[in-house]
Amino acid sequence: MYEQEIRTYAGLMDELQLTGLEVEAEGVRFRLERMGAPAAPVVVSAPAAAAAPAAAKAEADSDVVEVTSPMVGVFYSAPAENAEPYVTVGSKVKKGDVLCIIEAMKLMNEITAECDGTIVDIGAGNNQVVDYGHVLFRIRKERP
């Protein structure tokens, strides 16, 4: 990991107005944090941790699956500014259906449903910045 790469990530934090960013690359894991506007990012290095948690995990109610953000970026609920949202609370979805888009570093990433079910909660608003692991949707799985 080179200083220029870390500076690039710090610039991304400024662009997306983030207070924290955690990155793992080339066996090195580091976290940048900002404590208010005037403070500079702090760099902390640590050995790589165990595997990241699954994108969807069971809540206390085993019928509800949480779809979490796999990256830091901007959440978009619709394919275009004036378009209808992909899903709303109560929408029925099938595995593979697009739920939203997360824009990260000028790339649009579609987030899809990992199971058949009904949307019971949406955890982000349109144009909201989300962090890695942020719960985007809760889906109540369909029973066979």
Strand order of the largest sheet: 4-5-12-10-7
- Assembly form of the protein: single chain
From the spread of the alpha carbons, the general shape counts as: elongated
Give the end-to-end Cα distance, rounded to a whole number of Å.
48 Å
Count of individual beta strands = 12
Number of H- or I-type helical stretches: 1
Strand content: 35-45%
Radius of gyration: 17 Å
Biggest β-sheet: count, sense, barrel?
5 strands, antiparallel
Summarize model confidence as the mean pLDDT.
79
Secondary structure category: mainly beta
Fraction of helical residues: under 10%
**Order of helix and strand elements from N to C terminus:** HEEEEEEEEEEEE
Detail the poorly predicted runs: 37-60
Characterization of the model:
With 144 residues, this protein is mostly beta strands. It has one helix at 3-16, and strands spanning 20-25, 28-33, 42-47, 56-58, 64-68, 73-76, 92-93, 98-104, 107-112, 117-122, 128-130, 135-141. It has one helix and twelve strands, in the order H-E-E-E-E-E-E-E-E-E-E-E-E. It has a five-stranded antiparallel β-sheet with strand order 4-5-12-10-7, with no helix packed on it. The relative contact order is 0.18.
